[in-house]
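Our working data are protein records whose layout never changes between entries. Getting from the letters to the tokens is the skill we practise here. To make this concrete, we reproduce a full record directly below:
***
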Amino acid sequence: MSITKPIETIRKELQDLLVEDIAKALKTLQAMLSSQTETYSLVIGLLARLNEANKARLRGTLENDELNTEYNKIRATFLEVVQGLAETDFEAPPEATGEAAPKQGSILYRIPNKMPKDKETKCVVRIALSEDAIVEEITLDEHVQLKELYRVSDTMEAELLDPSGGKKFQISSINDSIQLIDEKGFTEWWFYVTPLTEGTHPLVLKISILETLDGQPRKKDLVMEETIEVVAEGPVTEAEATQPKQAGVLNFQTASKAVAGLVTGVDKSNLSAKASETTNAADTAATSSTKSVASKLGLLQKVAVGLAVAATATVATLVLTPEPTRDWWTTRYVEDTVAGYTAYMNEHPTSPYYEPAACRKSMLLDTPAAYRDYLIEFPEGPCRETAEQALLRLESEALQAIEKEPTKSALDAFLVDFPGCENLEALYNIVEKNDALREAYLPFILQRWEECQRHDPAFPKPPDTVIPGLPTVDQEEIPAPANTDVSTQTIQPETPVSKPATPAQTTAPPPAPTPPPPPNMVFVQGGTFQMGLSNGFGDDTLHPVTLRDFFIGQYEVTFEAYDRFCEATKRAKPDDKGWGRATRPVINVSWFDAVAYCNWLSGQTGLKVAYSIAGNRVTLNRNANGYRLPTEAEWEYAAKGGPAERAYTYSGSNNVGEVAWYQENSGHQTHPVGHLNSNDLKIYDMSGNVREWCFDWHSPYPKTAVTDPAGPEGGAKRIFRGGFWGRNPEQMQVIYRNSWYPNFTHYGTGFRLARWK
């Protein structure tokens, strides 16, 4: 591109940007340069170095000081590049003047031409710039189609659509529809199609190029129509499944005009040929193979190099791929079971396919608990919308079933699976007119109704109801004696006049309740530290934070401590999942439960309560010395060791098993607190066992220095940190953050205390 600013101005802007964000500075210069220049190659190399350094830090193979040293080297080289910029770096060479040649790539997709009614069929779409990458780690059969894309953008969108608007097919996906297309590897989308009606119906695959032209977003669409034969419920035979299909209909649309020549078709029937079966009966279990045949440029012949052919009728497997990848597509494309995905997640907790496996597992289970587990672990994951829609569907189906046939078992299951406030009125209407259920369930529903109203004052009031077995509001009350101070009156048992009460007969007043023992707290000296990740996960920008002195719990709050609170306040004790209580960390407590416990404990120990609670409004008093939840900054500072800040990957070690109960060593349950190694401050279980509620609402980190931050004034989800017993090592890291709605409870979530001096 030609530049419109003086070189010196560009240099100054890039230098200023480098101070703010090294990755942004590199990307900005890359976008300005001609890709035909040596300077462009230098910038690409610096970006690769930066990405490798960040990945090494996340894997724990690079310490913080080593990471900063690498950043400084990249900055120094970048400044040299900036100082050496010339106008020729921004101009296309003479032979390339005019409009730059667009990126070219390929699209490969698998949409079976025959599908069983009411059974889920998986469809795969992938896009790549490299001919080699497009066919990596793929199972080849007659359904695979390959087409060349004359134009590919950095960002593209893939959608699989039912032209009937959902009447013929139900379609879900585990991916974001919009994804990045880079120079390496391929980008892949997975769709799950459930045909609803027998017959022959079209499915539309829409691939969109997303670009910005003249400062305005522009979109070009490639539309491919596939004809699907939907057969009666039951397995599709091998012969039916492998019938070649006719070429799809191509139609390209833009907002302004049709774009011609965007795609060159390749007949899918040339992509693979079924091998003849051997006649050796002893080898019939392993007799079939697939021969890859390329129709142009020897594309698929490249796949045959190093390819071992496994024994399934028309499937070629790539046995030389890395183990996590090979296991993934074996599980995904061959087994596709809950047990298979569970085993994969346990065996490859750091694989990039861990999240898709969790998503697919939840879809196969198709239960409220499964979808909620996914949403808690991946609240912003690609499968989020699918999981949320599935929860709404299951909730609606369960409520309809109760309306049709109200039973105790159905009500019990519904109240456990859907503890929200939205359906209380519907449940009330069902139970109130059912004599068999009214007495058992109406008090519980009204109690929950009051809790919902307490958390949200705008929630409608419950109806006036006479509950069987409870006194009515118009029941006659016993009046207090005249001229008597009711607040100080002591009612004595009735005693006959002829037999005055003797001292031995006098009932002694009950002993005063014993105050709970004070929790073990660790003093943390305040200081300044770097919070977050440099070039991290979008909203986790590295920034300096200064904290004053504070105390934090040496251990997570235990069942033993929390049960005292429940007994004193007449609350229901949270479920321990049958693992035991005592010194195990309390679980199944919401954020609201945690702040209520903090205030109660402050009152019991003579400290000034830290929270003002009005319904669902909770305000932190920064001048109070009472117990509270740690802020997210306090939590990370303490987890890193306070002033020492040893830059461990996990809290106290670079070896996750030394300090954390996680999915590989926990036996899938919590453990008594303090049984593994502590960090440098003698604080236990900040990585693993249970993840811990923090005070803050979730929001992106600030990009400038802050002092004693406590998050924004409002939000949707509260932060929790530390990971829990059922998750992978990545979530045990001291920099890992996650969040969820404050009224939610989970068997992997608890909390620890903090307070100011």
The longest strand covers residues 216-231. The radius of gyration is 32 Å.
